[in-house]
Amino acid sequence: MTARETEIATYNFAYLDEQTKRMIRRAILKGIAIPGYQVPFASREMPMPYGWGTGGVQVTASIIGPDDVLKVIDQGADDTTNAVSIRAFFKKVANVAVTTETAKATIIQTRHRIPEHPLNTGQVLVFQVPIPEPLRFLEPRETETRKMHALEEYGLMHVKLYEDIARHGRIATTYAYPVKIEGRYVMDPSPTPKFDNPKMHRSPALQLFGAGREKRIYAVPPFTEVVSLDFEDHPFEVQTFDQPCALCAAENVHLDEVILDDHGGHMFVCSDTDHCEKRRADGHRGSLAPETHLALEKTEPAQ
Amino acid sequence: MTDEPLLRVAALSKFYGSRVGCENISFDLWPGEVLAVVGESGSGKTTLLNCLSTRLLPSSGTASYRMRDGQWRELYRMSEAERRFLMRTDWGFVHQNPADGLRMTVSAGANVGERLMAVGDRQYGKIRATAVDWLSRVEIDEDRIDDAPRAFSGGMRQRLQIARNLVTGPRLVFMDEPTGGLDVSVQARLLDLLRGLVTDLGLAAIVVTHDLAVARLLSQRMMVMKDGRVVESGLTDRVLDDPRAPYTQLLVSSILQV
């Protein structure tokens, strides 16, 4: 008998077998105990290609329970291929409730953004990480970078920032901006825009990072100090945008540029779609917003 | 100058299995002194240098170093973290091939500044100013500061490597054939520069070379090695003008006269 779309898959709960989940949970616990330290783990083959979030999916699968409400975002959006597929995957293999609302979710798996809506105690943010090693492009030897982490030799990280200033007159790194966790480990916050770095600092939510291909898990426990590296005379700054979101008129949010036609027409809109929709539902209107707003069904319960 | 040595080496041996790397080497090195280690290739010069700079661990023997606070520390009993710290602050290591000692993908300025940032300098302006100063001291134009070393000639790379090592004001520098692979006119300028820097900064240095002319120009004292052992040591001028061991005599008489 072939399974229909709506049927619950006959896999173990949340796809991974229980032993694998225990192994990953152990890595997560170790990561939480040593904030920012990259814990090696036996990453499994997942039914998706590397680079599509195999690390994040394994972390989510290991921590998710039947009562959890899952939200998945891809560059801030709930409605892109990656987000839709991973959400559908967990609906099928774990039969959990899914949502697009940040406030309602207990687990948020993210690719390269932290939601604009402030996170709360009890929420878990799971990052998909392509390259967990912040020193990788400066020192290609893994043996050497692990030693550098162990001995806290982080001068090299500033060499990269020095190069930025020498070449561009300012720190031109805009994403995967290195941070120091609790005054000890230097960590790659995954390719989130540096706009999101301040949100990591003392966040009440637990932040977990999974890199499937590189087989590393690391974590930032709630209320942990996360400091972006900088120079005294070139302090850390986040991106600023000179216009508000074209749909919801939000300011001080991260915006995406959207091309409208082939005559150079473009607009800047919130990268966090949930935040944008919520603001439009509340009556905020940007310069290019349509007249009426279609309210979407945001939460789907478990079957 | 104090009357205490900077480095004390006693009965240092390194074996590769049953083969001898270097055997039973003992000497003292005083602050500001340049010691040349000469000998043909395979005589154990580089093994000795690598042992002294803790890049290799010896099979037996000890080496003690007088730290800046006057404390004597045994090198092979220090933790790896301490050794690496020493290596990037109080010591320098000039490789024969500059590509081994430089970061070829980052700019010259960052290469010089790396050690400063490693010891906690967080002022971009200050790091840059120091890099400019050091580049001029090793005769590299200031406008090359943002170029990567792969755009540099061999001689410039070697000078950049020297600047990178000296920027933290080390007291002891290890050099492995610093002029190897450079043509003679470039060699002459590099030696001139090295001699100036060593005298100005009062550096102690251990220079490994097979080139007796380099040894004569740079060093006050020299050790001649053969088959892993020291066959003769003494003041450089004495050893070169009045060689006593038969091997040293052979070595000195083998210099090409032009």
UniProtKB/TrEMBL annotation, chain A:
One annotated GO molecular function: 4 iron, 4 sulfur cluster binding
Q: In the record, which residues are listed under signal peptide?
A: none
**A GO biological process held by the record:** organic phosphonate catabolic process
UniProt entry tagged with the keyword Metal-binding = yes
Compositional bias, Basic and acidic residues, is annotated for 294-303
Give the top-rank taxon of the lineage listed in the UniProt record for this protein. Answer: Bacteria
- The keyword Nucleotide-binding is assigned to this record: no
This enzyme's EC code(s)? 4.7.1.1
Its recorded reaction(s) are:
alpha-D-ribose 1-methylphosphonate 5-phosphate + AH2 + S-adenosyl-L-methionine = alpha-D-ribose 1,2-cyclic phosphate 5-phosphate + methane + 5'-deoxyadenosine + L-methionine + A + H(+)
What segment(s) does the record annotate as region Disordered?
281-303
Which keywords are on file for this protein? Answer: 4Fe-4S, Iron, Iron-sulfur, Lyase, Metal-binding, S-adenosyl-L-methionine
Q: What is the protein's known function?
A: Catalyzes the breakage of the C-P bond in alpha-D-ribose 1-methylphosphonate 5-phosphate (PRPn) forming alpha-D-ribose.
Family assignment?
Answer: Belongs to the PhnJ family.
Recorded protein name is Alpha-D-ribose 1-methylphosphonate 5-phosphate C-P lyase
TrEMBL record, chain B:
Concerning its family, UniProt says: Belongs to the ABC transporter superfamily.
GO process annotations (BP): organic phosphonate catabolic process
Membrane-crossing ranges are: none
- Name used for this protein in its record: Phosphonate C-P lyase system protein PhnK
A GO term, aspect molecular function: ATP binding
**Which UniProt key words apply to this protein?**
ATP-binding, Lyase, Nucleotide-binding
Q: Where is the ABC transporter domain?
A: 7-252
Q: Which Pfam families match?
A: ABC_tran
